[in-house]
Design goal:
The structure is a homotetramer. By secondary structure, chain A is of the alpha/beta class. In chain A, the strands form 2 sheets. Chain A has an 8-stranded parallel sheet. In chain A, strands 5-7 form a two-stranded antiparallel sheet. In chain A, strand 2, helix 2 and strand 3 form a beta-alpha-beta unit. The longest helix of chain A is centred in the last third of the chain and has 22 residues. Chain A is globular. The interface between A and D is large, with 52 and 52 residues.
Chain lengths: 327, 327, 327, 327
């Protein structure tokens, strides 16, 4: 029987996307209500992932939760704001400035409080500003020490709130410290807390030349640590944040299979930047692709797929995929 | 009504594939007859692309043609041997050594003679050794002069034999002179001969961050110059020479559509390196994928696809592809 | 005798750099005067490249020229604004909307007027929004037709003002039409006007897996068409817009050599995004690197370098570079 | 006082290099004596890294050691043959075939015996064939289990012989299991043996978008686990195996600094494929570059470099490098 997938989307999917050239955004700014209005119209969408400090604060948390519920949705996760203000430009958890490090830790704790308050129980910290751009600009060992210390402190803050660290190989820094699945696992293993795990972002994995299915398998093997999932797609060299499955059909199918196989039961959360598309339509496409490909896996049959994997014969795998995709 | 596709394969698809580590090859060496025996069993395969000097020579051309026909196939194209002997290590048409340059030109002419003799009427020169590895190693301007001169001389040798230049951005040199669709068009425009055009190799386009459909469109726009097509797939950073459509489903569909739209009527020729796979099975998979995706395009309908392209709306394109791939 | 290099910088080098995460910018906004004040303190900097419509308009052109001169600088080039407003999101010269296409053409013409008015005589159009993101989203042939028509019309507007088309393989679109040196040359050859040429941006060449020296050579070979140069550096996969020579020392030396060899006499214009650096200091570094590497070339000696290139022996090239860099 | 660097080279640097096109090799085959004769003439070269089974066996080990010594060299490391015969085509330690897995383990043990016998005390297993090419071809979790088990067994074989696992992201498989520094550390931490550590290959790190200095720092931080080093260079997308420092000057300097800083005291071993160059000359170039850049670091001064790193200011780092490289 097919698994029921819980779909979510980061709120900004329904906002106005900007890049470093069109800073005003490619479409008119949207209010929170306008974004929720659009989200509400996306079939199968259940959750909304919010940025702490942007979309909700300690003060308005109850009100926002109520509002989101009024739109027939729930808050699925809280993203700490560690990457969108100049303050974090030289790093958050790994800043040389002790004050900024503590502010960053406090920001995550606040997000954890919000996660508890809203009932979602999970925060998704992404350390995009923690890295370096040039040679001779970073003490890599100290940066890792800071990262571990910060996460440890956060993990202890609220042991029943999950911290799902999102890794990414580059951007906005040319090199981010927590860049690959291997490094992400190393980090959370050293922190060694039950409530600390990993967010896999498809596009981040792809731009690190990872096969997403393999990354899911490793997160499973090293402690069942896949806590959260961000859906999108790209052309493998950059985080293009496109509609999921718009480029990589086959690897997406393998990813979905391994998510099932490893018992992943978290959100499938859209993290796309539809710069020039209608956010609602892009979200619908993404969800429909994932649902369609999941149905395909059901049709192919878990047993048959397992048999194929056991063989390790690429032509058999090809034939199976082909028959079901093209029949 | 669906277009009838003419499938071909380079003979070595059915041989033993080697790489720089396993020089002996990943499977036992095969005789020409063994390769033809395997090719014969691939449904829809009509042509065999041969390497001049390897598989056939002036002396045995008639015999080889006969043999290929006995296996129910025909010779589809001749590949001049400009890349597999140490002799060409510092370049063929662009060698600093006049003697080697002339040898290379003569090699192409011999291939053209064979193309005439065998009736295929087309040669596929690939200038993989013509490039450079290090900085300060090449006089780029002189190299282009040599390339143009050589091609011009060949073009005049037999005006009724097509020369379909295959471009590639790297490997075996870290940089090849004729590396992109833009450079390939520049080259053949300067040569300015009716019988000189382009071979698009899917993997070569991908590793140059090209969208194959766009490259086909440009070859059309600049003089209807797509003469030949090599089918394979890869992970976009290297010429992995995998089974076509095993990685890139969507871009492959767009490629097939544009081949039709631009009236391409040449061969669809498999150029894969099934190092660890059975060559015959890999060839079958490749052909079945292409046929299946072509059928899909027919179902989607040329008119509807054209309407979508006119809109330029990614979500509409996504919906169309999704409906037909996942229904 | 060493060549005198004319250094310039895009004005925004001295402003506040933003990216898609930190839209407010990594440092406080700067006024035009503040930017000029910083630029003035950069030794050897002579020119300032301005964005038409942003930094100057028909109305204030005289005033701006005067102001720039008061800071001891001159206007080196005008960049038409074809990439920073939502209006161009679906393309400028290649927009499906005739009105937008004409607006874009008019924007370039206005920039040309400003180029004449300010005396710099050159505009640098970059068609970053002209491309596509997804499959089945673009009619590639029509796009090229539009591009050629638009450029042709502009070229005729003021034949004594140079149009130096800047190519780039991706960003902000996942695929830009005028993406490589090959395509850029194809474009300007078809337009066929004396005043239409090319801007080489180092980072754009690198992210297209080009060797900059080779691209300069090709621009020379196909009509002496290198009109302008943008200096920066990156890690080869993305347009990181870093300080020139901060990553690629050797290829930068080869580039500088070929600029001399081909008689390039245009500006050496800094196009960097010092997100987290002081713009003035970053500009100083960039210029000092280029000057230092140029001096190195002088020491190595043109004749000796030419001798090395003629040999094509990588170890000789290595030895020469090593001796002069490490002595 | 400058550190004394111990230089080594893989024997095949002095042999004939082949690739998948020129299988015969780009230069005539060389005998072992011819290779040693060439190696002997490389100033500062002290060690030779040999492939177990190729260059030496249990039978001829004493004789080979003697011969190498006669040429004024010593055996620096033994590379187990796990990647050059068709037998390993579907994996060595991770083969589905138990017999092959055991053979591979035995091969490493034999190499360890040779390492003991020759006195070098270190083996460098590279699991290039252990990975996958296509989707749905691999059980990633089982593969890691096999890898850990195999290494554990080998580690126990001879606890006083070091096992320095060499990671690589791709080639010959399109995806290798032990692909990044993060994964390599995860692996050796799980094996948990004092004699199991890591080989950093510069080119492998580069093609995984790693900064080598950072990778060295991480190997240090996670247990002082850098056991061996392979020197080469490339254009960041593929393992071009070029002369070290021929492309990346700045990152190479940072690497050398961090090797010192972390107290690395193993070999600096050339692993290049001089397809079209004279092996001896290429080795000389590589060693001279490393020595020259090391001297540069001494001149820059450890204290000053540490001060720069503490600042984290890219323009200061740039100025320091520039002054010493270009003075």
């Amino acid at each position: 029987m097919p698994k029921k997938i819980k779909f979510s989307a980061i709120a900004v999917v329904f906002g106005s996307c900007a890049d470093r050239y069109v800073l005003e955004g490619y479409s008119p700014k949207k209010s929170f209500d306008e974004m929720m209005e659009a989200a509400k119209k996306v079939p199968s969408l259940e959750g909304i992932e919010l940025v702490g400090g942007w979309h909700l604060t300690a003060k308005n948390a109850k009100e926002i939760v109520k509002k989101v519920e009024d739109y027939g949705l729930c808050v699925s996760a809280i993203i700490p704001e560690l990457w969108s203000s100049a303050k974090w430009g030289q790093g958050s958890f790994t800043s040389r400035d002790k004050k900024i490090r503590q502010d960053a830790i406090d920001e995550v704790k606040r997000a954890m409080d919000l996660a508890k308050e809203t009932g979602c129980g999970i925060v998704v910290p992404w350390f995009g500003q923690d890295g370096y751009d040039y040679s001779f600009q970073s003490d890599y060992i100290q940066a890792w020490d800071f990262m571990v210390e910060g996460l440890f402190e956060c993990a202890n803050h609220l042991p029943d709130v999950k911290i799902a660290v999102e890794y990414k190989i580059k951007e906005p820094r040319t090199h981010c410290f927590i860049g690959t699945i291997g490094k992400a696992i190393l980090l959370i293993k050293e922190v060694g807390k039950d409530n600390v795990g990993i967010t896999l972002d498809i596009g981040h994995a792809l731009e690190g030349y990872e096969n997403m299915a393999e990354s899911v398998a490793l997160a499973k093997r090293f402690g069942n640590k896949l806590f959260h999932l961000h859906l999108n797609d790209n052309y493998r060299l950059w985080d293009d944040d496109m509609i999921p499955a718009s480029v990589h059909t086959i690897e997406m199918i393998e990813l979905l299979f391994w998510l099932n196989k490893t018992g992943y039961d978290g959100w499938y959360s859209l993290d796309i930047f539809p710069y020039r598309e209608d956010g609602k339509k892009a979200a619908i496409e993404g969800i429909e692709w994932i649902k369609g490909l999941s149905d395909l896996i059901d049709k192919m049959g878990e047993k048959e797929i397992e048999r194929i994997i056991k063989q390790g014969d690429a032509t058999q795998a090809s034939a199976l995929l082909r028959k079901f995709l093209l029949s």
